[in-house]
Amino acid sequence: MSAPFGTVLETLTRQRGVRASLIVSESDGLVVDSNLRFGQDGARVAALAASMYRKARLSARAAHLGAVAFLQLDAERGRICAVGGRSDLVIVVVSDASANVGLIRVELLKALESLA
Amino acid sequence: MSDDIHRWSDELARDPSSLVFLQLAEALRRQGQLAVALKIALRGVERHVKRVDAHDLVARIAVDQRDFDRAVAAWETVLTLQPEHVGAMKGLGYVHFQQQRFDDAERYLSQAAEVGGGADVTAALEAVRRSSGGVPIADVEGVPLSDAHRLFADLLIDEGQTAMLLDGNGYVLAGLYLDSTGRDVAQEIGAQLSGISDEVVRSTRHLDLGDWRSIVFETNAAVIAMAPATDSSLLVVAASRATPLGLLRRLLDRCAERAAGWLSGGGGR
User: With a threshold of 0.80, does the pTM exceed it?
Assistant: First the structure.
C-alpha cells in the first residue's frame, strides 16, 4: 500500500477480529485511506460511519456535552468503532462482534495521536 | 439522506402541489434545519389544508423549535380533522405538560390512552398525575419508587450518573437528566440524542451487522451509552468521564432490564 496512512491502518487491521480500518473525511464521508478485508465495500463503510460519527458529534454538541472522542457501536454481527474530533479526519474500525474492543480503542487512540 | 433531500426539493420545485413536501420537511426536521422545514411544511399546509399529516408535521417542527403556541394550534387542527389522532393527543399532552397546564395535559393523555395510545401514554399520564400538585417530582422526597422519574434512581450509584428512557419521538418516558445545577434537562438532552439512533439503524442495516445493541461515546463532559428498548423506545445512560466504560455498560444493561420490565407493565423491579 503506497497510501499515506498505510502503517496506521495496518496496525489496526492486525487486531483480532478487525475486518476493516479506514480514515474518512467526516464532512463528506469519503475514504482518505483504507485497509479492507476482501469483500468489504470501503466507500459504503466510510460514508455510513462518517455520517454516524457526525450525527453523534452534532447531537452531543447540541446537548452541551462537548466534543465526541471515541464512539463504539455494538450490533448483533459486528462492531463499529471510531475516533476523531481533532480535525475533519475520523478513524474507523469495523470488527467482528467478538473482537476485543478494549484493545481496538487503545489502538485507535494511538492512531489518532499519530495523525495529529 | 442528502440525496433524498435534493431529489425531493427538485420534485417540489417542479410540482409545488406535490405531497413530497411531507418527506422533505420531515427529513430537514430530523437534520435540525427547523426554520427551512417549517417554511416548507407551512407552504404544504396552505396547499393541502385538509391533510392531517401536514398539520401534524407543522406541530412537531414547532415543538422542536419550542414554539408551543404554534404546536397547539396545529395539533388542535389535526383533532378537528381527525378526532381520534393519537399523535395529536400525545403532542398536546406533552405541550401542556411543558407549560405546567397539568389538567389539560391529563385530559389529552387520557383521551390518547382511551384510543390505544400504548405504554408511553400510560407512563406520561402517570407522570402528569404525579406532577399535578405543582411541585417538581425531582424535588419531592419520599415519592414512591414506582414514579417514572425515579425509575432508575436506585441503580445509579455515583454522583454524575443519570438515566432516562425516551419514546420513539425523543420524548422522555422515565428517568431524569440532571445538569450541574440539579435542573432536569432530560427533555432537551433526549431530543438531541435520540436522533442518533436513526443513523445507527441505517448503518447497521446497510453494513449487514444485524440489530444494534448499544452505542457508547465519550465526550468532553461525559460518557454516554444508549440502547434500544421495547416499543421503539431508547435508553440513555450518562456518567462522568471518570467512569470506566465497562462499568457504564453494566449500568446500561441493568437500566435496560429495569426499563423492559417497566414498559411491559411489571414495574421493572
Answer: no
